[in-house]
Amino acid sequence: MRASLLQIDVNPDESVESRRERVAELVRAQAGADLVVLPELWPTGAFAYESFEEFAEAPEDGPTATVMSAAAADAGVFLHAGSIVERATDGTLYNTSLVFGPDGTLRRTYRKIHRFGFDKGEAVMMGGGEEIVTLELPGAVAGLATCYDLRFPEQFRRLTEAGAQFLVIPAGWPARRSEHWTLLARARAVENQAYVLACCSAGTHAGVEQAGHSQVVDPWGEVLAEAGKGEQVLTVELDPGKVARTREEFPVLRDRVLGLADPRG
Fold this sequence. Notes:
Radius of gyration: 17 Å
Shape: globular
Number of strands: 15
Number of domains: 1
Largest sheet: 6 strands, mixed
CATH superfamily: Carbon-nitrogen hydrolase
């Protein structure tokens, strides 16, 4: 399986409309990949809270969904289009990921469960998701999470229990905690014996410098590819069978006791 992570520079001098079209062309350029991943809230910037209301949209037919659906179909790829500010029918805002199939259809949405901000920003402006979400890819199952979710290992264990072999994590992670970003991505890979595809944005969002350093980590914790701080495309060939082989060769997951719904099972 070929996966491409697009580390997008969110430049405040570029309009949201222009960025959508530019990113769509970058997606189209990945024709031949199986999976393409974009960062969290790349249309507006993850810390551009003052823009959330203005650019909130519907996940099915909003402007970002429309442009990304067409790009996925043109490239013939599964496209994890990062996340958007979703406005639900009751007016609640959510940080919602969109995943399109190679035919351009919307296959999955995921509302970010853990909201960042410590009583401000996203934490008070947005509702929180409640569902663990997985997606069938060619030859593998992907588990979906977003940015701050990375700090909560129980979510990833639940994704693993739901069959996930790939953990896909778009983010708008701040540069001042970039060491946490790379460390936690490796930790989630090692403890779940899964591939981690962690795609961060570049640039500066509302004065908050982004970490960049998107990375792909294998089930043993080896970093297969890592970006720098600027806009960059990472393309990696992945072997879905390596997950099963790793779990068979080093069967740590079967020794779990705490946290199981029924330890006797």
